TrEMBL record:
The keyword Nucleotide-binding does not apply. It comes from the Eukaryota. It is an enzyme of class 3 (hydrolase). InterPro entries: 6-hairpin_glycosidase_sf, 6hp_glycosidase-like_sf, Glyco_hydro_9, Glyco_hydro_9_Asp/Glu_AS, Glyco_hydro_9_His_AS. It catalyses: Endohydrolysis of (1->4)-beta-D-glucosidic linkages in cellulose, lichenin and cereal beta-D-glucans. It comes from Acer saccharum (Sugar maple). Keywords: Carbohydrate metabolism, Cellulose degradation, Glycosidase, Hydrolase, Polysaccharide degradation. This is Endoglucanase. Residues 14-472 form the Glycoside hydrolase family domain. GO terms for molecular function: cellulase activity. The lineage of its organism: Eukaryota, Viridiplantae, Streptophyta, Embryophyta, Tracheophyta. The keyword Hydrolase applies. The active site is at H399, D450, E459.
Amino acid sequence: MLAVEVEVAYSHDYGDALSKSILFFEGQRSGKLPPNQRMTWRKDSALQDGFQIGVDLTGGYYDAGDNVKFNFPMAFSTTMLAWSFLEFSKTMGLDQKYALEAIRWATDYFLKATSIPGFVFVQVGDPYSDHNCWERPEDMDTNRTPYAVSKQFPGSEVSAEIAAALAASSMAFRPSDPVYAAILLKRATMVFEFADKYRGSYNDSLGPWTCPFYCDFSGYEDELLWGAAWLFRATKATYYWNYVVKNIHNLENIITKNINGVSYNGGSFAEFGWDSKHAGINIMKNSSSSDPFVPNADKFVCSLLPESPTKSVSYSPGGLLFKPGGSNLQHATALSFLLVVYSRYLKQADRVIHCGDVVVNRARLIQVARGQVDYILGSNPLNMSYMVGYGKKFPQRIHHRGSSLPSIDIHPQHMDCKDGSSYFESSNPNQNLLTGAVVGGPDINDSYADSRTDFVHSEPTTYINAPLVGLLAYFKPTGVLKMIKP
């Protein structure tokens, strides 16, 4: 019998994209880089963070193309990396190791940021001076002021998000490093207690430094519930379950946002991202099949589907999901992640969703999510991948300081604040490949300028990539395959 090798080609190599989406986080690392650093054009940076006040705050991630450490979006990115791992690590293969390393780079930092009782450090660096410069993180000489919330000046949203990140990560590490997992979980309970006991928004205490960059638009109640939901999942303690059930009504309010001059009204059930955790809570708690999570999770799905009579999002002509605000691909990745996770719960419950007269099964949720992932990877009107280093055509001029400036290997001399301006303004491709970085994406007409100055569309962020890691791991088994056929 003759064995014939037949290649069965699917639309994208999800495994390759998965590896690159995780590698991206190495390009965002702050602190002392390890010997096994694979993105070698990056070097050590910000090695004195926190030292002026006697606290070691080195490590963690730069959230986007700048050199500030914003702990609110960093914590959400960590939670999503951990959730991606918990749901889909079985298909990650060799990338399991790198995914855990990406999570640990953040959790090691958060252990430092929460090491002083009564304080939670929420940011390192002055965003105004940082954004005034275009310099490598290895060179930066801008003010590295640490900002903390405390009993007197609370910040429940960022503290509770850090608690969620630590709790979710503790479960990710439990099989391979139970001692470390226990440390993370213990700290998560302490930080959540602090967030809940001393309630308030960091907008009020640190607004001049955190806004307009990462203001909390949706209030801190959702983060408290999000943190409690993750602690229940990690501990199974009824206290956290009761906490969520008792306070879930706080999320029923209609959210009104004004983003970049655009007013937006939406039901809280439809929101999910670094600022709003509402839909994530309903999806995650849905595994219990208890009200009010099921109806709200179903309403969330109906708010997304193109054919739904209650759709509250827009779609470009090429099929990309849009919501108000910058860095639009954060919505495409985070909301698609929830669709895939919810499809698994629907399978367990053997049920469908009713959006008015439209009946939706789990296969439709997967189809919509896959459409968003494929669009990002190149199935779009421009035939362009929005992940750097994936495919034949991808963004060349991303809004990212380290990527756009020559590496220390090429230019060992110090570069001052304005020395990078000519590189920023240049139309030449970036000097270094930030492999795996997913940019903010095209506009609603499927156009993309590939311009460094157009940061809304050309800047990558950790919170775009983090949920995409889970999506790519989920779709990886249906990527490019080879079969031996007799």
